[in-house]
Specification:
binds S-adenosylmethionine, 6 helices, 7 strands, seven-stranded parallel β-sheet, alpha/beta
Length: 194
Amino acid sequence: MREATPERRRRLEEVLSRRQPDLTVLLENVHKPHNLSAILRTCDAVGVLEAHAVNPTGGVPTFNETSGGSHKWVYLRVHESVKEAFRYLKEQGFRVYATALREDARDFREVDYTKPVCVLLGAEKWGVSEEALALADGAIKIPMLGMVQSLNVSVAAAVILFEAQRQRLKAGLYDRPRLDPELYQKVLADWLRK
Ligand code: SAM
């Protein structure tokens, strides 16, 4: 294995020190590789350490060039079912907000994203399932004022995650490492191998 140059190590450490272990997404049956890839690319840009998915691309996550290589730097944990994904996220202390185009969904900007938050995004055709909606802590939507009813799922993910980034920047959450030292060293060692 090639030894990382000091510059590369510094760059990896800089990025890792901005990772946010308490901000994530759960992708429910997001099947299209270009959507999955685009969402992971946004996750990388806002500092998501690990994303979650239920049944991506029929079970096996596949990425394409849309990811820009980001799938190397954002872990993707695949869960067998919605129930199992919620169990895991709840155990980690996340509040899960389901994106849904419903009357009673709150404007996504009303959420406090400086707290441990998971944004649940749904399938391209069907949206978030009733099962997942029932388990979520609330429903959020991006107001749509035009002719078309919904956004592309990767666009919706970006809009919401960059609001989370805005709030977290303001709160100083990117100013110091957020991972506990043991996890930080573990991830750094993994990244150095890539
Ligand atoms: N017919 C589906 C529905 O009624 O939910 C549309 C699904 S939309 C194309 C795919 C996913 O993108 C949604 O499940 C949601 O996660 C996200 N999405 C799209 N537009 C959104 C919006 N305006 N607000 C919140 N999420 C949105």
